[in-house]
Structures are given as structure tokens and as C-alpha cells.
Design brief:
Blueprint: E1 2-6, E2 12-16, E3 21-29, E4 34-42, H1 51-65, E5 70-76, H2 80-89, E6 92-99, E7 102-110
Parallel strand pairs: 4-5
Antiparallel strand pairs: 1-2, 3-4, 5-7, 6-7
Helix pairs in contact: 1-2
Length: 112
Amino acid sequence: MVIRLGTGRGTFVEALLVSTGVVALAEIDWLKGRVGNMGVRIHPEWCGKGIGTAVLRMISSRFLNAGMLEFQLDVAIANVRAIRCYEKVGFVPGEKFDRDSVPFMWMNLRRA
């Protein structure tokens, strides 16, 4: 998306906005210190550049420092790239399950 921004001096600057991805946290229980699920989607053009790992490290670090004890997320077992990313951050594989006949597993990150 290209947007046109006024500079306040009668001139304009055009800026290209590029979305690199989306992170969503769900089922946050502050009393139990738990994030029940989270989603991470990185735009294909930005995959393989360490962005997902960096974002996950930042988010998990901030939430763990704020008192969270555990993060949980689900991932399709065939999504090897995502699983490697989660493992780099410290997530460990958990229980396996099927969703619409697709094999998934939970991955967990707990405060040390």
C-alpha cells in the first residue's frame, strides 16, 4: 500500500507500507500467568530472515518479565520452518492432535 503524507510545508512524501507479519495472543490468563494460544504469521517474502525468531523472543521475554509463567501455541506438524523457529526461542513439543484431519501439536514455553 502506498500512502501520501503531508509534511506541513506544502509538500508531500509517498511512503510504501509493507506488512511483515502478524502476532496474536489469545486466551491470556493473568491470574494463572498463562497464554493459552498464540499465532504468528510472517509474510512469505520475509521468511528465513530471523524476523519470526526475533519477534517471538521479544514478546515471550516481555511477557515472562511481566509475570507470565507459560506460553502455549499450536502448529501443524508439517510446518517444519515454524517448529524450528519456536524451538530456537525455547518452545518444546507437547501433545499431538488432529484438526480437520491435519496433524498438529502443542508447543510450550515455561519460565525457568
